[in-house]
Amino acid sequence: MKKFFSEFKEFIMRGNVLDLAVGVIIGGAFTAIVTSLTEDIISPLLGIFGGIDFSEMVANINGSELRYGAFITAIINFLIIALIIFLIIKSINKLMTIGKKKEAEEESAPTTKKCPHCCEEVHIDATKCPHCTGDIPAED
What is the mean pLDDT of residues 30-34? Predict the structure, then answer.
């Protein structure tokens, strides 16, 4: 039993599990914000300009209420969350692509050159060879 709990502790303490937990908490808070945006701002605006109030959309069938207006609001919430997540992921991918291009440019730039006297590799900015002490002409 002790081994089980030690394995469980190791699993929980992994970085990716903690990252997932933080993501779920932030996702819950984000959902609350989007729900408020939809219910408190977008739905009333649609009611003002379109004459539609989703919260009032209810169908009564045999004494049961079908609140399809709340369902429409949930769909709007989902679409807003999906759009924002899409934009965030697109931005992150763009930043990562820019970073990779920059890394590739830095990797392709030479960092050394050959000494014309002893043919040893020296730093690109060197003016004197550390191997043979010969002067290295500046490159244009």
Answer: 85
